[in-house]
Amino acid sequence: MNHHRRNLVQFTAIFTLMASAGLITEAQAEEWNKAAFEGKSLDEVFKALGSTSIPEKSSLISMNAPDIAENGAVVPVSISSNLKAQQIAILVEKNPSTLAAQFFIPAGTESFVSTRIKMAQTSTVFGLVKVDGKWLMTSKEIKVTLGGCGG
């Protein structure tokens, strides 16, 4: 079993476990969609996430990330918004798998996520926030001096 497939199996197991523990609903676990993580382009991921078009840019979403990442293996990125987010996703345009992270935001909680992503090379990073069933986004170019995906 290759590394990528093993990760998908682990993600599926984690989502099933989270659903059974009540951390996410069954519907959210089903909504998590391996096609989105397998997408090789922005368009494929947008489609897999259920967006019929390119998400609209919004100044109500902010991304905190470095302009230059010295190590692409651990790039700190946080996305926040005052909007009532249902989901937040982080996409890296030039990565082998475009979708780097997807978060389900429980109702009534702050629309904020912070994580570390891997980047193969300098790329535009997109922060997507789903509000009322519609995706909005912000973006930023992050320069990578040492690639984190075997680059």
Q: Ends: how far apart?
A: 22 Å
Query: Describe the biggest sheet?
Result: 6 strands, mixed
Spans of 5+ residues with little confidence (pLDDT < 50)?
none
Radius of gyration: 15 Å
Residue share in helix: 10-25%
Globular, elongated, flat, extended or rod-shaped: what is the shape?
globular
In terms of DSSP E residues, the strand content is 35-45%
> What class do helices, strands and sheet pairing give?
alpha+beta
Average pLDDT metric: 82
Please report the total strand number as a whole number: 9
The string of secondary-structure elements, in order, is HHHHEEEEEEEEE
Helix run count: 4
Structure characterization notes:
- It is a single chain.
- Strands 1, 3, 5, 6, 8 and 9 form a six-stranded mixed beta sheet that branches.
- The mean pLDDT is 82.
- β5 and β6 (99-104) form a beta hairpin.
- The chain is an alpha+beta fold.
- It is 24% helix and 36% strand.
What is the structure about, briefly put?
The protein has 151 residues and is of the alpha+beta class.
